[in-house]
Design a protein that fits this description.
Blueprint lengths: L9 E7 L5 H8 L7 E4 L8 H4 L4 H4 L9 E2 L12 E2 L15 E2 L4 H9 L7 H11 E3 L13 E5 L5 H12 L15 E4 L1 E2 L1 E2 L2 E2 L2 H6 L8 E4 L3 E8 L2 E9 L2 E13 L2 H11 L2 E2 L1 H6 L6 E2 L11 E9 L11 H14 L11 E5 L10 E6 L3 E3 L5 E3 L4 E8 L7 E3 L10 E3 L6 H18 L8 E6 L7 H11 L1 E2 L29 E3 L14 H21 L1
Parallel strand pairs: 1-2, 1-15, 2-12, 6-7, 15-28, 16-17
Antiparallel strand pairs: 3-4, 5-9, 7-9, 8-19, 10-11, 13-14, 14-15, 18-23, 18-26, 18-27, 19-20, 20-23, 21-22, 24-25
Helix pairs in contact: 1-13, 5-13
């Protein structure tokens, strides 16, 4: 078992946040037996049945034990709505509560990063790091890894409705392709998931749990990092709150922030790294004036659809009454069935217009409908239904986050600015109409009894936009708040070193200069794989 940390010990590397990036960093850096690594997590151990059970993601959505449960400020572009932002607070971070979709994004996403001045981050540069992590059940290939630490698998079961979605999409011009993470990176296909033999494979279970025996790796849970310790312009450690007591832990080589797109910028600002004028308002001594900290906040926003269908076209009835217990027993005995499934099994990636350089719209469907109760519980609808989304995965709208207090226990204010760019609205409405066109095409059309939401009377652009604003939701893919680059708003350089501060890096989704065209967990893992090589290379050269 991993040793317990002591505040009197100095570690070579301190990794802040045991999430999608932090677990990868700690695992890779501790491969060098001569270097000591401390991995610090604010949340508890990931010791819950519903974390390991793929379908448990719904039960974790409002779970206060494993979830930060952030809420945005009022969003003017959504008519003043606030938006709930679940983020993982346990070993594995958001990879312990997410939908487990393994989606890398489009190659042009990463080539664009490189074009912005981030040499070494183009598609050809990052592909080896995607492959390094991956143990794809389809085997190794030019695009996929077969012996990595993270399991990538196909859905445990396929519902006939999803097959019909693929057929209907093909009939309206969306090509059926073999996979979404390979050429032509455009079309409709089944998604893959980070699920291993019917259990969620978070970055903790994949990267850290198997190496807890390493004597040079220490994992501390329920330990809240409050500030970075900085002396003479360099990070020397962290300040933490554990069991109600403040402590300082020293780092000999580097402090590596992996607290996520919402946590890392907050810690930088609390430590005096950010916009000097903003920090001055809270009496925080300025260490480094970096106005880009907390800016460039990006996320995906999607339109929701709910359809009433005939009984054989929905899984709802299998999650009620006696059938619910039969389904649970099936999972316990075989690790298969509905409880072994991740998020939407099938997706289409399409262009809103033919002249768009890459797919910017994702369409997805699930043979289930459910509601979240105020007490945190989940209730599957009794009537047969299916749910769908049309998501803009190439948004132009950009928001920001800011401190509201120098108190590290207070959450920042989040201003996502969804749909603030008129182009985002126009393209999302195109996606909504295409989703409806697919649903109106056989063989899918024969399964649908009625569209419940938005409903058949919602047809004009104005009506669709109102639905998008009132009922749309986030993809929970927040990123970009400590962006990589060389311009005046960049927070880290291409080596992910915080500009102007020694021995400090940020390694998580916050460094993305532009959001990727799909789920962000796989790219975040890639970022950590690449960063670990950078850190180890620098250590070898020292």
């Amino acid at each position: 078992m991993t040793p317990q940390y002591t505040s009197s010990q100095t570690y070579d590397y301190i990794v802040v946040g045991a999430g999608s990036a932090g677990c990868v960093m700690a695992s890779r850096l501790s491969e060098d037996a001569g270097k000591t690594v401390l991995l610090v997590e604010a949340g508890p151990p990931a010791d819950d049945f519903w974390i390991s059970t793929p379908a448990g993601m719904a039960k974790l959505f409002l779970n206060k034990r494993f979830n930060w449960g952030f809420t945005t400020e009022d969003v003017p572009t959504l008519g003043g709505r606030t938006v709930y932002w679940p983020r993982g607070m346990t070993l594995g971070g958001s990879s312990a509560i997410n939908g487990m979709v393994y989606m890398r994004g489009h190659p042009l996403d990463f080539d664009h990063w490189a074009d912005l001045g981030n040499e070494g981050w183009g598609w050809d540069d990052v592909l080896p790091y995607f492959k390094k992590s991956e143990r794809n059940e389809r085997g190794a290939s030019e695009l996929h890894g077969g012996d990595g630490l993270l399991t990538v698998s196909d859905a445990a079961t396929r519902h006939p409705l999803t097959d019909d979605f693929i057929t209907a999409a093909s009939r309206v011009g969306v090509p059926h392709i073999a996979e979404l993470n390979g050429p032509p990176f455009e079309g409709v296909s089944y998604q893959q998931f980070t699920i291993r033999q019917g259990r969620r494979d978070s970055t903790y279970t994949a990267f850290v749990k198997p190496v807890l025996h390493r004597r040079n790796l220490t994992v501390a849970t329920d330990t809240r990092v409050t500030r970075l310790a900085i002396e003479n312009g360099a990070a020397t450690g962290i300040e933490v709150l554990r069991n109600g007591r403040p402590e300082t832990i020293a780092a000999r080589r580097e402090v590596i922030l992996c607290a996520g797109a919402l946590g890392s910028p907050q810690l930088l600002m609390l430590s005096g790294i950010g916009n000097g004028a903003d920090l001055q308002k809270f009496g925080i001594p300025l260490v480094r004036d970096l106005p880009g900290v907390g800016r460039n906040l990006q996320d995906h926003w999607y339109a929701t659809f709910v359809m009433k269908v005939n009984a054989e076209s929905s899984s709802n009835q299998n999650l009620h009454g006696l059938r619910k217990y039969i389904e649970g027993m099936r999972y316990l005995l075989t690790r298969r069935g509905l409880l072994a499934l991740g998020s939407s099994a099938v997706s289409a990636y399409v262009r809103s217009t033919p002249d768009w350089p890459q797919p910017d719209i994702q369409l997805a469907i699930r043979p289930i409908t459910l509601k979240f109760r105020e007490d945190g519980g989940v209730e599957v609808d009794r009537e047969p239904g299916v749910s769908g989304v049309a998501s803009l995965v190439g948004p132009k709208s950009v928001g920001h986050m800011e401190l509201v207090s120098p108190d590290p226990m207070r959450a920042p204010a989040f201003h996502p600015n969804y749909l603030s760019d008129p182009e985002d609205i126009r393209r999302t409405l195109i996606g909504m109409r295409l989703f409806r066109q697919i649903c109106a095409t056989e063989p899918l059309a024969g399964r649908i009894v009625a569209e419940i939401s938005p409903g058949p009377k919602v047809t004009t652009d104005e009506q669709l936009l109102e639905h998008l604003q009132k009922n749309g939701n986030t993809g929970w893919h927040q990123c970009g708040t400590c962006k990589m680059g060389s311009d005046e708003m960049a927070v880290v350089d291409r080596e992910l070193r915080v500009r102007g501060v020694g021995r400090l890096r940020v390694v998580d989704a916050s460094i993305m200069p532009r959001i990727t065209s799909g789920n962000t967990n796989a790219p975040t893992i890639m970022i950590a794989e690449k960063a670990a090589d950078m850190v180890r290379r620098d250590a070898a050269a020292a």
